[in-house]
Amino acid sequence: MTTSSPSSTMRKTALYTAHSQAGAKIVNFAGYEMPIQYPKGIMGEHNQVRNSAGLFDVSHMGHIMIHGEDLVAQFEGLVVADVQEMQENQMKYSLFTNPEGGVIDDLMITRVKGGLYLVVNASRKSVDLAHIQAYLDKSRVEYLSTKSLLALQGPKAAATLAALVPGIDKLKFMHATQAEIKCIKAFITRSGYTGEDGFEIAIDNKDAEAVAQLLLKNSDVSWIGLGARDTLRLEAGLCLYGQDLDETTTPVEADLKWTIGKRRRVEGNFLGEGIIKEQLQKGPQRKRVGIRPEGRHIARGHTDIAGQNGEKIGIVTSGTFSPTLNAPIAMGYVDAKYAEIGAKLNLSIRDQLIPGQITALPFVPYRYYRG
């Protein structure tokens, strides 16, 4: 996760003051002044989410609503998901692709009455919006600039939210509903970016602090920053756009071919289909893998990966120390012939070759609620 110090040109979410009052360390992330950690620290916050419940401000993410005739068929030209099969209030994780098969962005799609509701990455909001508008010229594309987004994650998230929204604990993973939290209208999805059970709650900016405080009144909940969000998502083997995904990386190379619907694999009709379908049939030249370095050495992004004979076979894209496993973990891309689970490799860390091996993802099992 790349961050830098705040500047006067950065934007703030509606919860900026609340973060400052809670003692957050603020950094620049995707053009926003965002909390990277609180006094509890990244390790403490990480464990809070694994053991109880944590509240994240992810209001820097982009919200886009699309309406129009023949919308689904047109929109499928931009993504690899089977959107036609989605029921109302069902969600899917998908990818915008370019003509070369590369990933423009990864996103969440929710099918709502009369349209599609998208949540896209903060760093790609303007790119995604222009891309959608260029291809969906017959649809009404609306960027929802007045929305905030809270993520409540962890094993006690369902009980916490159900105390305010009775019955919400029965909502299934990757489904959505309209609800009220103490008379405040909210769009709630059972989803998240941690590998834990949890919810994402979209509300108007003016209501963000009130909803956050209602959740934080529960002693099982505390603020969590972007630092712990990064360690949690990496333990879950989830990609971060700009590090693990970019416009030169295809869904197949990223080991995300499961996002390509069965019908879409046959019919195609999405950008880059020729390259992607060829890789589905013949395999990619490189592949994203999980890596466990030996000892306590952390292989950060851009660390070279070498084979047993010292030859360069790939590069690390994300790396951290896993609080749950009490060991370093990483993800990266290696030449496909070296991508077998259990394969030995070497990591170039501080001019040393540190042994490691390829391991299955996720590093820590998911705990999603499927009903």
SSE inventory with pairings:
Elements: E1 11-12, H1 16-21, E2 25-29, E3 32-37, H2 41-51, E4 53-57, E5 62-67, H3 71-75, E6 91-97, E7 103-112, E8 115-120, H4 125-135, E9 140-143, E10 147-153, H5 157-162, E11 176-181, E12 184-189, E13 198-204, H6 208-216, E14 221-223, H7 226-235, H8 262-267, H9 273-282, E15 286-293, E16 304-306, E17 312-322, E18 327-335, E19 344-349, E20 352-359
Parallel strand pairs: 1-3, 4-14
Antiparallel strand pairs: 2-3, 4-10, 5-8, 5-9, 6-7, 7-8, 10-13, 11-12, 12-13, 15-18, 15-20, 16-17, 16-19, 17-18, 19-20
Question: What's the CATH H-level superfamily name of the domain at 11-59 and 146-236?
Answer: Probable tRNA modification gtpase trme, domain 1
The fraction of residues assigned to DSSP E strands is 25-35%
- Order of strands across the biggest sheet? 11-12-13-10-4-14
Distance between the termini: 33 Å
- The average pLDDT is 96
Order of helices and strands: EHEEHEEHEEEHEEHEEEHEHHHEEEEEE
CA-based shape: globular
Give the second-level CATH assignment, the architecture of the domain at 11-59 and 146-236.
Answer: 2-Layer Sandwich
In helices, the fraction of residues equals 10-25%
Number of helices: 9
Largest sheet properties: 6 strands, mixed
CATH topology of the domain at 11-59 and 146-236: Gyrase A, domain 2
| SSE class | alpha+beta
